[in-house]
């Protein structure tokens, strides 16, 4: 079974590596210390602190495994792959809603790096899929659960590199 390729910007890879380092060097030690302290409280079978610490340990180890997997299967977007004449992964796109003239700007990234609060949308989202391979001044139809909207591409740039 082939693993799904994880597409990241250089910044996205750096953030995942920093998060992995934090889990390995800090979270693991904190949880191990909580387990050690909880064992001192006595009977493990009736010790809620111990059970909580073990559950947290399981979570931390799961996160470490997940981050290791993401990093191992990552393909980092090369700046040379990002163009300003066509929307691609890594493009920063300015668009305008045809109906209400609302202007939006965001960067198209891989799913693992998607964070709408940071104006980073996934290439697999309805908006991302509608914009990929489109050019400036094109009108795109975006189908979402809320309905269909039309947007005009105003500008394509690369701000993430």
Write up what this structure looks like.
By secondary structure, the protein is an alpha/beta fold. The protein is 38% helix and 24% strand. The chain has helices at residues 10-39, 48-72, 126-131, and strands spanning 6-8, 74-76, 92-97, 103-109, 120-122, 139-144, 147-157. A 5-stranded mixed β-sheet has the order 5-4-3-7-6. Strands 1-2 form a two-stranded parallel sheet. The two termini are 33 Å apart.
Strand and helix map with partners:
Layout: E1 6-8, H1 10-39, H2 48-72, E2 74-76, E3 92-97, E4 103-109, E5 120-122, H3 126-131, E6 139-144, E7 147-157
Parallel strand pairs: 1-2, 4-5
Antiparallel strand pairs: 3-4, 3-7, 6-7
Helix pairs in contact: 1-2
For the record, the CATH architecture of the largest domain stands as Roll
Strand content: 15-25%
Unreliable spans = none
Give the proportion of residues in helices. 25-40%
Average pLDDT metric: 90
Structural class: alpha/beta
Which descriptors apply to this entry?
161 residues; alpha/beta; Helix Hairpins; Chitinase A, domain 3; 2 domains; two-stranded parallel sheet
In brief:
With 161 residues, this protein is of the alpha/beta class. Helix content is 38%, strand content 24%.
